[in-house]
Amino acid sequence: MTSVTVPPPPAPYLPRRGERYRLVAPNAPTAPRIVRDFVATVLRVAGHPRLVDDARLCVSEVVSNVYRHTDSAQVRVEVTVNRRQVTVYVTDDDPVRLPARTRGAETGADTGATEGGRGLLLVEGLAARWGTTAYGVRSPLSKTVWFTLSASGG
User: Fold this and answer.
1) CB-based contacts of 50: which residues, under 8 Å, 6+ apart?
2) Can you give the pTM of this predicted structure?
């Protein structure tokens, strides 16, 4: 009999005040579109239509990275919305490679990887804050890439 241990939900590393919406999707080629539409719907209904386009771009990049660079079976998304900001958390079960923008991505230099790090430059340019967190003390079990968009534009 095989036993599968599911890691606990990530501990909060940013204030999570506001309404929370969650989606779990298979890590498949359709995941970026499904998650993008989910996030757009949440933001429109929550009264943040001006953040929809930026959120769609950012979440598309992050979820596409999960699909391209991990063996995670699922991608878990949480959107926390309040009147001042929106934070999107994208979690997968492959913590080996934490994403980071590459120096070559800034200059357009060849870093040996197609589009390597450029998506994160986009996230960095649009988000008020972004980052990554790995979960698990000695042997990480999962990671989250998160970004915050400010309703005030800053």
Assistant:
1) 151
2) 0.78
Q: Mean pLDDT across the chain, nearest whole number?
A: 81
For the four alpha carbons of 108, 100, 126 and 22, in that order, the dihedral sign comes to positive
Torsion angle, alpha carbons of 84, 88, 89, 90, to 10 = -170
What sign for the dihedral angle of Cα 130, 136, 138, 139?
negative
Calpha distance 80→19 (Å, rounded):
6
Cβ proximity of 130 and 123 under 8 Å:
yes
CA-CA-CA-CA torsion sign (27, 31, 32, 35): negative
Q: Which two tokens stand for residue 5?
A: 């241990």
Q: Is 106 helix (H, G, I), strand (E, B) or coil?
A: helix
Q: What are 40-88's pLDDT values in tens digits?
A: 999 999 999 999 999 999 999 999 999 999 999 999 999 999 999 999 9
pLDDT digits (tens, 9 = 90+) for 118-127: 778 899 999 9
